[in-house]
Task: structure prediction
Amino acid sequence: MPRYKLTIEYEGTRYSGWQRQKNARTIQGELVKAAQTVFDGEFELYGSGRTDSGVHALGQTAHLDVRTMLAPNIICMKLNDELPADIAVRYAEKVSPRFHARHDAKARSYLYQISRRRTALGKRYVWWIKDRLNIDAMRQAANEFVGLHDFRSFTADDPDEKSTKVSVESCRVESAGDLILIRTVGSHFLWNMVRRMIGSLAEVGRGTLDVEDIRFFLKKKSDVPARLTAPPSGLFLEKVYYDSDVHSGEICPVINI
Amino acid sequence: MPRYKLTIEYEGTRYSGWQRQKNARTIQGELVKAAQTVFDGEFELYGSGRTDSGVHALGQTAHLDVRTMLAPNIICMKLNDELPADIAVRYAEKVSPRFHARHDAKARSYLYQISRRRTALGKRYVWWIKDRLNIDAMRQAANEFVGLHDFRSFTADDPDEKSTKVSVESCRVESAGDLILIRTVGSHFLWNMVRRMIGSLAEVGRGTLDVEDIRFFLKKKSDVPARLTAPPSGLFLEKVYYDSDVHSGEICPVINI
Result:
């Protein structure tokens, strides 16, 4: 069957994550429902990976197998016509039937937004932290994540995951007005992993943890990062990389506060 | 009584505008409720002007008369503790008892966001227009608004308003990615005026109206702009000016899409 690559944007607030579930509203579930209406026949939809409940995406990807006469931009339009307002298909492109949204993904980048003030307009897109945060200390700690490490302290037990070793390419911390932006790029990320990295970095910023603690969590299994899991509201799956693109560029906030 | 100037940010989506009403949820109503809890006594709150139902604000202002021992930053914090999440007091400052939030305001600036694409994250903050818009034509038409004009074609009958003559200082149209940003600065704005200006500019962008039509609406009373009133979701009261500040600076989008 012909294969299409979809790039999808969503506000995760109302959803129990990406993965289709029987008794919960999910992003994949809504996409499948929309595709059923548009194509009225056989199709298959496969995502690049899961996002947790409440997590947003600027550029989630999936591949869609469907026999259709519709041009890709029309597929995009027709799916959007059926989707709820907080999910949008940004692009649809015809790809090789050998392309695989998950297996071919070389890297993912995530953006996290911490707000240093109460924001009436951005609440759904930030984690508001009242305490003063030491950004230099957070930056230093973020560097500890870079490289190939065993992230078992930073993930919940996941029967689908064979290994807890992950190669993190970068983890940058930047100040942008009242926001602190953290972007991390890696081969893949484990269940809850980014939110536990962020939660630990926030404690480093507060001064209750230090760089040594982060090093320790990466060497020995610890329960601490689990207790510090950052809320999903601040987290965005920014991009899924399939080629040798440079994984950098300016870190851009989603909302200007 | 001592007087404090408040700078207030809000998402207008859930509210019937600024002005306190008996049977509707309003921004002023929520602020008064919060102040009642914090001050538990006599106080008076006076806004710089109304915003319509559904319209947002980045920098609405009001003055608050209250006898209190609290420092301005504590007033700010305590009000925020009582306010709903979509209203935030950004700053509180002690001002002269002669300062008046409305009468002393020299100018107001409004920002309007049109989105050229379906946005899953910014829907509450934009007007999504599917048609192709000619920005150059919009820019030319926007220039027509500048100066002292009779805006009666652009306002609903308002018994509180004595004159429909308004001095518009600037009306700029800029392209920012998938957004079109329009900022207008003026001495004051009449009921529905900004949204009717924007609605008319959108028609110029679509090509169904031209610059000559805008000139005509400013010379003779016409019902057309009323029918073209733009939705409140894209509109933000950006700033209220009290001194001889330069009313310019970069136009910054609220959401980056």
Notes: The domain at 107-241 of chain B is CATH 3.30.70.660 (Alpha-Beta Plaits). Chain B touches chain A through 23 residues (CB under 8 Å).
